[in-house]
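Handout, section B. The chain below has 288 residues.
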Amino acid sequence: MKEIFEKLRNIGSEAFPEDSRLIVIFFSLLLFVFFSYTLISNLTGSSEDVKSLLNKEAAIEDDCNVYNLSLHGFLDTYTSLRSPEKDTTASEDIVWSIQEANKDDAIQAIVLEIDSGGGMPVAGEEVANALKTSSKPTVALIRSGGDSAAYMAATGAEIIFASKFSDVGSIGVTISNTDQSVKNERDGITFNQLSVGKYKDMFDSNKPITAEEKALIFRDLNIIQEGFIKMVAENRGLSVEKVRALADGSSMLGEMALEKGLVDKIGGIDEVNKYLEDLIGEPPKFCW
């Protein structure tokens, strides 16, 4: 504003007589006052808006008795900056939230709402263990889908709800890749293998996977699959043999999942609300 005032004053002194300069200075002062008032009003308004928003959030937090968490998209241990466009949920965020909810005396139950086709096995294990060891009752609600690592996570809850149309299960492990070596050869592209360690670049798509590499990969896939089966069996109270028979990587709709013991009840948010009201003895009030 000072610069604007100086420019207007200089313009007045060069182009106008004394009386005209006074008029210019007068209007410059008015302009300065107007901009100053606007700036102060905006700052005050912003402060009040933020204060109001914080008070609203605090009121919601104080009033709720059920903590609601979401597992949407790809489940990873952390949100990757390498692919920000990917819909990702971090297990570290869910685990932290469950731990915080356990410290809050006002929270009487925790709900994990799931809509995910899976993700990383470590992330699924972390969420399942956090739910399983929670000091508060836990509920998993599978909406469109709760598959693979997302289903693994759900098994840590005390009770699992799913719609009759939900996609459930997919107990299996994959790490498939694309072999572009034939296309590269056809396009005249040469792959120069520069690595130390026999298996260092076995997942490079520019070369075929050898028989030895496949054997090494399947060794680890089988270990993960066996761990997945045992975790589901333990968390769901099923025999290992029964879960292994279901562990072909396929998924099933909610009613079949109920029949097979993978979920406990058919229903959505209304049924979860009714269950929670019976459980805690009052209408559930959710916070996020």
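Note. The beta strands are 66-76, 88-90, 109-119, 138-147, 159-162, 167-169, 251-253, 265-266, 286-287. Compare this with the example in section A.
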